[in-house]
């Protein structure tokens, strides 16, 4: 069974918790499938150098986490990449505001760790497939910056097309489902509702900024007891009706049980 202290496999990870370097250093890793030390929005411009140095010492102490680095157009990108490439314990890198395949490829070539580019603008959404194909392990949706770019609200209808494009781009390039941006606020019921809505579109992870959001995302993206029981019945059945439908149902049932095992809900 998967090591619960480090969460499930990268392709199945549900919750992607952003924390400031200061929080991570002071309090350690919070519970989440993926923990990300945020050198971009989570670190003020005047503190980036200091926090980067402190984070390097933290990694050198035997700790592990992902890091979110500043985008390739900033003066901080090179130093962030140097950190990711030079210290042990960097499990992966999230590249903020990826706008092109070249930026992704250049970053990927400089690091020896999985890379998740964030798609956060109209230009990036329209280039999502080439971004996904340039060395990404998964792609993520920066919904807040995307809304600011288009000057739109956070309603599901306003963001549905962009989310669907990321799902299609991921599938076309053989990547797992994309990672959605966080819900605004800490209302667990709303987080669950939002997560179920994007799950229906094909997104399989979400960024989180609080413990409550993390819990709600993991709940919404985990198989339920009924789903697990149904999957077991499907795989145990000898007759499932029309052959084409049976193949699809069995494949979905196997995926449900795989996810349940990876999340520690059942034993293999």
| CATH architecture level-2 label of the largest domain | Alpha-Beta Barrel
Series of secondary-structure elements, N-terminal to C-terminal: EHEHEHEHEHHEHHEHEHHH
| Mean pLDDT across residues | 94
Task: Determine the oligomeric state from the structure.
Answer: single chain
| Beta-strand proportion | 5-15%
Overall outline: globular
Q: Major beta sheet, specifics?
A: 8 strands, parallel
Alpha-beta content class: alpha/beta
The CATH H-level homologous superfamily of the largest domain = Phosphoenolpyruvate-binding domains
Total E-strand runs: 8
Stretches where pLDDT is under 50 for at least 5 consecutive residues are none
Alpha-carbon Rg, integer? 19 Å
Q: What share of residues is helical?
A: 40-55%
Order of strands across the widest beta sheet?
6-5-4-3-2-1-8-7
Task: Give the N-to-C terminal Cα separation.
Answer: 7 Å
- Count of discrete domains: 2
Instruction: Please count the helical segments.
Output: 12
How is this structure best described in words?
The protein has 268 residues and is an alpha/beta fold. It folds into two domains: 10-221, Phosphoenolpyruvate-binding domains (TIM Barrel, Alpha-Beta Barrel); 224-268. Helix content is 49%, strand content 13%. Strands 6-5-4-3-2-1-8-7 form an eight-stranded parallel β-sheet. Helix 9 (188-201) links the parallel strand 7 (179-180) and strand 8. Helix 9 (188-201) crosses helix 10 (211-220). It is globular. The mean pLDDT is 94.
